[in-house]
């Protein structure tokens, strides 16, 4: 294919060399004001990337590639500037998903933020026995709190709930069989699938029942001398409706007792308060699982609970103690920042009356649609004049999602600011400009408009968000 070869050669010949790039005035100024070697490295890897693209792309892509100096410099500058900014930065979530996994799930409470800052200021009591001054047990930090709040005998926290599930299975059932209902073989985003988790934990999965119905006798018939545990998984991110049936937890607990088998409950989100009091479907409560006799229960720290990433394991003290002795626990343990934030978050639950005020996730859930509407109207009034002729603004009914697989199929009535660009800009393009703003704003694009759901926008962020929208449309 001489034609294609010629195209590649032309592009490669056109590519500027490193000296030309590094001497460009804009690149030069970047190199002078920031770590020079880092900027050089970024520019070089951009150039290498473009060279590889020219060598490896099929002809139809080749036609689109431009390799002249100005464009390569523009591109390298853009990449370098982004690399010099913090990569993890604060954003405004106007996307209307409360537990937005990609945006860090639960926004953590003020008290938890302060505890983290305190723990990080210097040294802290992470794993020290304060009486003896000798090495202590970091797992004890939350033991009493978890017992008090949930009613379980003991509790610890590890890296996340995925880690918690693996630890429990590995500790209680390595080399043995674990019985699970077919209706509960879930996949959570990010490659967390119960059958694979089971395998990696060293257990053999024994599926019982059918997709829609599983009976107590299905479990009982599957028990052999190799059975090591029974697992219940909350089908957090989907719902089976119609002719369905799962075994109630107390019956599962009784079966476990009868055969002397531990019953494990993976609750996923796991709520510590009853969501039905806010008109939402009831998410299974941790306290009820304890009361129903589950031997060990795991749930996430950063879903409904509203804390940082973590996986709580609570239940019988003997089981929690054997988890602590599992060498894998060392690999999956939390650091000082997490402990500080977990403790402060759990302590919020000791004062239920103040929870709605102090707990950001609950505050978002309980805000009345009317209140969201008023805040949205206020935002609209504030920016309407400046955006005249640039965008059409309307306050429309909308829906907030819980996110993170919590409350599937159910949303919270809300209101949104609907923005329809009148200038030559697609809604997708406006969304992108908002994401690149300072602070970045995440929105939703629907029906040729951009939607801002203020339920997930923290109080006090509205003004900055309005400015970001004005800038994006300027
Ligand atoms: C979310 C979820 C997990 C994983 O929890 P992470 O804290 O994200 O690791 C495991 N099991 C269930 C049922 C879940 O809903």
UniProtKB/TrEMBL annotation:
PANTHER family linked: L-SERYL-TRNA(SEC) SELENIUM TRANSFERASE (PTHR32328)
Membrane-crossing residue ranges in chain numbering: none
GO CC term, one of those recorded: cytoplasm
NCBIfam families tied to this protein: selA
One BP annotation, GO: conversion of seryl-tRNAsec to selenocys-tRNAsec
Domain of life: Bacteria
Keywords, comma-separated and alphabetical: Cytoplasm, Protein biosynthesis, Pyridoxal phosphate, Selenium, Transferase
Organism classification: Bacteria, Pseudomonadati, Bacteria division LCP-89
EC annotation from Swiss-Prot or TrEMBL: 2.9.1.1
Residues modified as N6-(pyridoxal phosphate)lysine: 303
GO molecular function, one term: L-seryl-tRNA(Sec) selenium transferase activity
Tagged with keyword DNA repair: no
Cofactor(s) it depends on: pyridoxal 5'-phosphate
Subcellular location: Cytoplasm
Record InterPro entries: PyrdxlP-dep_Trfase, PyrdxlP-dep_Trfase_major, SelA-like, SelA_trans
Function according to Swiss-Prot or TrEMBL: Converts seryl-tRNA(Sec) to selenocysteinyl-tRNA(Sec) required for selenoprotein biosynthesis.
Main location: cytoplasm
Record protein name field: L-seryl-tRNA(Sec) selenium transferase
Keyword flag Cytoplasm: yes
Source organism: candidate division LCP-89 bacterium B3_LCP
Name of the coding gene: selA
């Amino acid at each position: 294919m001489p034609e294609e070869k010629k195209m590649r050669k032309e592009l490669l010949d056109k590519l500027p060399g490193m000296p030309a790039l590094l001497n460009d005035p804009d690149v030069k100024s970047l190199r002078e004001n920031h770590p020079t070697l880092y900027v050089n490295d970024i520019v070089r890897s951009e150039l290498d990337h473009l060279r590889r693209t020219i060598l490896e792309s099929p002809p139809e892509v080749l036609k689109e590639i431009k390799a002249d100096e100005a464009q390569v410099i523009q591109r390298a500058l853009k990449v370098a500037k982004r690399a010099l900014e913090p990569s993890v930065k604060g954003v405004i979530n106007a996307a209307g998903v409360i537990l937005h996994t990609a945006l860090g799930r639960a926004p953590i409470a003020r008290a938890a933020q302060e505890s983290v800052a305190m723990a990080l200021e210097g040294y802290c009591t992470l794993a020290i026995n304060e009486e003896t001054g000798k090495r202590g047990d970091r797992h004890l930090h939350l033991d009493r709190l978890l017992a008090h709040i949930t009613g379980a005998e003991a509790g610890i926290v590890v890296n996340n709930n995925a880690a918690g599930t693996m630890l429990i299975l590995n500790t209680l059932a390595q080399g043995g069989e674990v019985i699970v209902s077919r209706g509960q073989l879930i996949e959570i985003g990010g490659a967390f699938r119960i059958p694979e988790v089971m395998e990696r934990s060293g257990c053999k999965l024994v599926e019982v029942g059918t997709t829609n119905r599983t009976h107590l006798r299905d479990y009982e018939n599957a028990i052999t001398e190799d059975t090591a545990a029974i697992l219940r998984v909350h089908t957090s991110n989907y719902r089976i409706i119609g002719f369905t049936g799962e075994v109630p937890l107390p019956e599962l607990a009784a079966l476990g007792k009868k055969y002397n088998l531990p019953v494990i409950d993976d609750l996923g989100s796991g709520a510590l308060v009853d969501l039905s009091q806010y008109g939402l479907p009831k998410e299974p409560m941790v306290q009820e699982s304890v009361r129903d006799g589950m031997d060990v229960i795991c749930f996430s720290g950063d879903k409904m609970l509203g804390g940082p990433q973590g996986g709580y394991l609570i239940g019988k003290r003997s089981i929690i103690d054997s988890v602590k002795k599992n060498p894998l626990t060392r690999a999956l343990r939390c650091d000082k920042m997490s402990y500080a934030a977990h403790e402060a978050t759990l302590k919020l639950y000791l004062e239920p009356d103040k929870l709605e005020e102090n707990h950001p996730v609950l505050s978002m859930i309980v805000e009345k649609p009317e209140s969201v509407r008023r805040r949205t109207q206020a935002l609209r009034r504030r920016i309407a004049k400046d955006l005249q002729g640039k965008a059409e603004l309307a306050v429309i009914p909308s829906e907030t999602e819980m996110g993170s697989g919590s409350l599937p199929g159910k949303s919270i009535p809300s209101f949104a600011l609907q923005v329809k660009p009148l200038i030559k800009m697609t809604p997708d393009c406006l969304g992108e400009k908002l994401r690149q703003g300072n602070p970045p704003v995440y929105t939703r694009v629907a029906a040729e408009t951009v939607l801002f759901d203020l339920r997930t926008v923290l109080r006090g962020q509205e003004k900055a968000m309005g400015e970001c929208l004005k800038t994006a449309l300027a």
